[in-house]
Design brief:
alpha/beta; Lyase 2-enoyl-coa Hydratase, Chain  A, domain 2; 2-enoyl-CoA Hydratase, Chain A, domain 1
Length: 289
Amino acid sequence: MTDFTQFTLEISKGIALVTFSRPEKMNTFTPAMMNELIRLFDITDADDSVRAVIVTGSGKAFCAGAELGVAGGDTFNYNKRDSSREEIINGVRRDGGGRVALRIFKSLKPVIAACNGAAVGVGATMQLPMDFRLASTTARYGFVFSRRGIVPEACSSWFLPRLVGVPTALEWIYSGRVFDANEAKEKNLVQSLHAPDDLVPAAVEFAHRLVEKAAPVSVAVSRQMIWRMMGANHPMDAHKIDSRGIQTRGASADVKEGVESFMQKRDAVFPNRVSTDVPDIFPADPQFE
């Protein structure tokens, strides 16, 4: 866990704090960052000591988008890139930001963005599959794709309108303008604003409140239920998943402990672990893997 080059990882009292660590480069997104973020969430999912993940930046930026200085105008030209480390599906090279977004989507632990500064392009879109977004009063956001001649990435055409509504998503995407933290909060992109020095402590406190009395497996399954059902066609789809979840979890040691601790008026000590005990309540979906 100490060999990351794009960010630092600190785990304390159940909270994994991820801090992008290239402030001299505005924490820009690189292939190395993509691979390290995917590996990070594999680590946090498997580590039962981790109850929640916080992602923040250093210096003036959370992440100022893709690193443009190396390839310049060919940054997004896949025909001029080394494809040996890229995944190709049906002849199409997968967008790196999308691979990160989908890995965050699959996370079994709550994920919180603590946006400390500029969040532009993939720096903004990678936050969308995170469960909560807290922001510094100095944060700025920009879905600047139209100003670079490209289109939204990192699954943002799915996430963004679900979070802020279609008109707001379209206005931000069409114009590509950069906007401040106050507008982000007004439009429900972020949940709360904090003074710069208070941002990470506020995120840590919030993370503890989320998970301190909750069964880890219940949180993991509930996170997947909420996110996946956003694309369901009918409430019956949710009913089927709910029913599978209640039936599977109802016989678990966690539920026995949860009920008995309530009746005995004491804090629960849940025995089940995310690394071994998360039930598979979703129908097989090859597209999700």
